[in-house]
Amino acid sequence: MSERRKQDQAELRRRLSPLQFHVTQEKGTERAFTGKYAAHAEVGTYTCVCCGTDLFESKKKFDAGCGWPSFWLPLAGDRIHQHRDTSHGMVRTEVTCAACDAHLGHVFDDGPEPTGLRYCINSASLGFRPKAG
Ligand SMILES: [Zn+2]
Fold this sequence. Notes:
By secondary structure, the protein is α+β, with helices and mostly antiparallel strands. It has helices at residues 3-15, 18-26, and strands spanning 44-48, 54-57, 61-62, 70-71, 80-85, 92-97, 103-108, 118-121, 126-130. A hairpin with a 5-residue loop joins strand 6 (92-97) and strand 7 (103-108). The longest helix has 13 residues, at 3-15. The relative contact order is 0.23. Zinc ion binds next to loops.
């Protein structure tokens, strides 16, 4: 790990809750239906809890019944990176913040139209900015 990355992680460890740190930096997963945004329906923008980048918008959030905030499209494709994840004996596609590499969750291909995608994201990876006005 580089010096820069060590410094960033030390700063995040101070600023984030233990769960937020575990999920974003150690690729953890919060327990289903426990995250604060799982059933959150306010209008606004979801941001990366680590670096503040805008990642998802409430318009593209849907209730997948899975217990995690689910979106059928990110705010912009270049805000997130996707990686093949073969951990836990499964082949999944991991989603990370393109700006800071924070782990966000996974994307599955069982979402609603028009994309057919389901971005299954941990609440612990997200911040929220209500729409002004
Ligand atoms: Zn980030």
